Every structure is written in structure tokens, then in C-alpha cells.
Amino acid sequence: MVTTPSLDLMLERVETLLTRYEQLQRAHASLQEQVDTLTHERDSLQSRLTAARSRVDALIERLPKTFDQDES
């Protein structure tokens, strides 16, 4: 089959676009995995922060009330 120079150029461009598309798909998958990992880590840290706040609030409640308003 004889191809013309313009057809060759078009085929080359299509191949380049397909290669770039595949690279972008891989990059997207990698970035999505990073987002998923970071989202999970953030959720875990938020959960730990909430638990720590609860423990601190419980400790504060157990502190003796030594400073009354009359002393201020």
C-alpha cells in the first residue's frame, strides 16, 4: 500500500497522541492512588484527633475546680 506524506504525518501524529494518552492514563491512575492514600490518611488523622480531643476534655473535667469566680 502506498501512503502519501500527509497520511504518514497523520499516522505519526495519531501514534504520538495514543502514546501521550497512555502516559496520561498511567499518570492519572498514579495520582488517583495518591489521592486515595492521602484521603485515607487524613480520615485516620481526623479520627485520632477527635479521640484525643475527647480524652483531653475528659481529663479537663476531672481537674479539681480550684479557681472559683469569687477569687478572680
From TrEMBL:
Q: Where does the record place a coiled coil?
A: 7-62
Gene3D superfamilies named in the record: arf6 gtpase in complex with a specific effector, jip4
Keywords of this protein's UniProt record, alphabetized?
Answer: Coiled coil
Could you tell me what this protein is called?
A: Uncharacterized protein (TIGR02449 family)
Q: Which organism is it from?
A: Comamonas odontotermitis
